[in-house]
Amino acid sequence: MKVKGSITIFLSLALLFVTALIGSLLESARVTVAGEIALDNSYLAEQNILAEYQRELWNDYHIFFVDASLLNGEEGAVKLANSYMDKMMPGGKGDYLGTTASFTSLSFKENMTENNCYFFAKQAAAYMKYGAAAGVDKKLINNANLIKTAEDGTDTLRKGLKIKVEAEKKLIELEREKKKLEEKANDIKKGAENIKEIIGTEVHAQSKSGLLGVEEAKRSESSNQIHTKMVEKPKAMAKKIEVQKSEVQDDTPKYTEKEVADAKKKYKESQKNLDDATGDGSARGTLSFFISGDKKISKRKISSTAWGEVQTEKEEKTDLVEKGLLILYAKAHFKNFLSKVKEEDKKEALRYGLEYLIAGKESDEANLSSVANRIFGLRTIVWYGYFLTRKDKMAEAEAIAAAIASVLALPAAIEIIKYGIVMGWSMDEARKEVKSLLKGDDIPLLPGKSEGVKLKYQSFLDSFLVIASGKLPIRMVKLIEQNIKLRYYQGFRADSMYAGVNGEVSVKTMPRIFRLAFLDGIVQRKTDNWEAGLQLSQSLCRE
Q: Per UniProt, which keywords does this protein have (predicted)?
């Protein structure tokens, strides 16, 4: 009996350990599976936070950033992430096999203004890289001129129909004028025939009469009467017209000099109000040397931008390829002075965006003036070097300088005056070229050569953008911020935009199947349940 009892006890103890082992394995599997489900759902919850990206930024500028201010900061983001987490856990109740997961903290990263707007530059360059690849087909079609040919054909047909309609209208008007002239000619002809008939009747009657003296007197009297009627009638008409003319002149209002001056003053005020309303006006300062007075330029201005300080962990810079892509991005999303304004265009804080990216000033006029002055300086140097190679021009300049020096009694100043004259010629030629460029015309690369390479205004802008490539990200972000404020809402701030999030997730599991104390250390027991922490990171800036 003792032997049989010992076997029973042994088997009972063994069964207990086997049951504990099986329970531990099942519990471990439950915890592992629930933890993986919680981890996957945590990633999805963070991606849903990033899916709250600022829609206007994407629609207008094709970049992804989340507006932290619209999510009520990090606290609001944690609440939103937890609400996503609850809905994503199996069953939609936030609990899976006794396991719950929740965000304990969530912080934003990769700010739009951080490190000289590095993360904006990274996204913009990536968009142009893949956007250019996606637009190959369209470029090929454009290179084949299929679209352009169709558009030109449509425009030509439209213009032809318009010309035809105008010609038909002119033809109808000419037919009417011809009919009127024919009617007037017939009236004149009838009048002449009546006069001829009257004169012929009188002569015939006189020829039958024997009393020549009496008949001659009658004929003379009749002719005098007809002549008097024919002469006096036009005189009466002329007199009547003079009377009417004098009456019209008398009705014309007469203004005093003060009234005229007041009218001119009111006109100038109304013109200024119109310019203020449209944001346009005449060029001033040095810009007036390159743009005629009748040409209106934009007078728009932007306010200065103040961003909060953003801490940067490490210094990062864009490479040469990314800078080239940024220039393409700028040309695709911003206009310049010669860009055509369309009705469907969205509002712009500054109309000359590319000029702002180059010069960085706060008004369209100042930016355009800065670009025009740069072109003027470059072309002045080119023309100066060209004139120095022309012996005939240098001889002419020396002759003029000698004449001026003799008048001033300063023979030693001939060389200074000569080179001053050459510089004056160079500046005048450069001014003419800048004026042509701002009209949309092209100029030869080398002075005095009409053939060969031609330069356009956009060619100079491209060169200046390359020089200013290091400052492009910051200036683009500032201009984008101003445009979004103008188009949508004034509360937009670039320093509230983030492209990534870091999160900490707490996963808690209640023991259900079997529990042994030594397992608490394995799964980091803290309270009455097992708890584990997860570190997550998601970003919209991807290669």
A: Coiled coil
Spatial separation of the C-alpha atoms in residues 280 and 364, rounded to whole Å: 10
The residues that bridge with 509 in the sheet, in sequence order, are: 99, 530
Q: Please give the biggest Cα pair distance in the chain.
A: 195
What is residue 396's DSSP assignment? H
Q: Cβ distance 504 to 533 under 8 Å?
A: yes
* Count of CB atoms situated within 10 Å of the CB of 400: 14
Of 192, 234, 235, 199, the closest CA to residue 218 belongs to: 199
Question: Do residues 479 and 350 lie in contact, with contact meaning Cβ atoms separated by under 8 Å?
Answer: yes
Strand-strand pairing, 497-509 and 99-111: antiparallel
Q: For residue 403, what are its two tokens?
A: 């004449």
Task: Output Rg (C-alpha) for the chain, integer angstroms.
Answer: 46
Q: Is 118 left (phi over 0), alpha (psi -120 to 50) or beta?
A: alpha
Place of tokens 């970049």: 63
Q: What is the DSSP letter of 346?
A: P
Q: How far apart are CA 479 and CA 303, in angstroms?
A: 10
Let me know if 450 is exposed, middle or buried by CB neighbors in 10 A (0-12, 13-18, 19+). Answer: exposed
Cα dihedral value 287, 293, 298, 301, nearest 10:
60
Q: What does pLDDT average to over the chain? A: 78
Q: Is the pLDDT score of 428 beyond 90?
A: yes
- Residue 122's pLDDT band (boundaries 50, 70, 90)? very high
Confidence of residue 271 (pLDDT cuts 50, 70, 90): low
Q: What is the CA angle 121-124-129, rounded to 5?
A: 120
Tokens 């944001």 -> residue: 279
The structure tokens listed for 143 are 């290179």
Ordered DSSP codes for 460-501: HHHHHHHHTGGGHHHHHHHHHHHHHHHHT-TT--GGGEEEEE
Q: Which SS3 state, helix, strand or coil, does residue 345 take? A: coil
Average pLDDT over residues 440-462: 89
Residue 311 in tokens:
């801490």
Q: Measured between alpha carbons, how far is 306 from 83 in angstroms, rounded to an integer?
A: 34
What Å distances lie between residue 321 and 131, 317, 325, 326, CA to CA? 15, 12, 6, 9
* Cβ neighbourhood burial of 101 (10 Å; 0-12, 13-18, 19+): buried
d(CA 296, CA 271): 12
Closest C-alpha among 112, 108, 46 to residue 73: 108
> How many residues are given for the chain?
543
Q: Distance (Å, rounded) from C-alpha 361 to C-alpha 359?
A: 6
Q: Are 448 and 379 in contact (CB under 8 A)?
A: no
- Terminal alpha carbon distance of the chain: 78
DSSP state of 504: E
pLDDT digits (tens, 9 = 90+) for 317-347: 778 888 999 999 999 999 999 998 887 888 9
Is 485 within 8 Å of 127 (Cβ atoms)? no
Quote the strand ranges of 217-347, DSSP E: 280-282, 296-298
Q: How far is 55 from 187, CA to CA, in rounded Å?
A: 78
> Is 82 or 234 the better-scoring residue by pLDDT?
82
Backbone angles phi, psi at 102, to 5 degrees: -155, 150
Q: Residue 324: in which H helix or E strand, if any? A: helix 320-333
